Prior knowledge:
Elements lengths: L2 H24 L4 H22 L11 H15 L7 H29 L4 H22 L5 H4 L4 H16 L5 H20 L8
Helix pairs in contact: 1-2, 1-3, 1-4, 2-3, 2-5, 4-5, 4-7, 4-8, 5-7, 7-8
Protein name: Membrane protein
Main location: membrane
Keywords: Cell membrane, Membrane, Transmembrane, Transmembrane helix
Amino acid sequence: MNHTTEIIHIIGTAAFAISGYLVGVRKRLDILGVLIVSLLTAIGGGMMRDVLVNRTPAVFTQNTALIVIGITLLLAWLFKLQNNRKKVLAALFLLADSLGLVAFTITGAQVGLMYELNLFGVVMLGFITAVGGGIVRDTLVNDIPMILRKDFYGTVSVIIGLALYALDSFGWVNTLTLNILLWGGYALRLWAHRVSWALPRF
């Protein structure tokens, strides 16, 4: 994992830890409940991805994610995010969850590239890494997972996975292009939410 990818992974981990924290607060869970939801949101997708490629989940061998989650939750508590109005909490959740979605799509797809998977494999690893933690989070608190109910959510992950595969095919994966993917994908997700983009329904 190169330096840029490590930073993107840290960003995604912190973002999903915050989204889990906010869901735990909204559901009025106790401290342990909030910790569990936040932890599994941040590491769930990565664990699913690692199992699929038959490797020990990174969180079992590296402490970076656990440290990032701990610091993030401490800061969230110190800044009393839970004391904001519902509208503010909803906005914070959207910002954090969208950033986690995009960041983890990139890191997950890069694992697929590292294992020299085909296009489908790269896109699926990015997708699973991005949405897996959110599925665990929503299932734990008895919500329908966002991937099944939100506008243009999983589609953003697929688009980023396809773009990263194309960039790699041309040898164009570098710090600049990864940052463009990260912030461009983030802007796409937020804009799609703002204008209520959605795939056609049956």
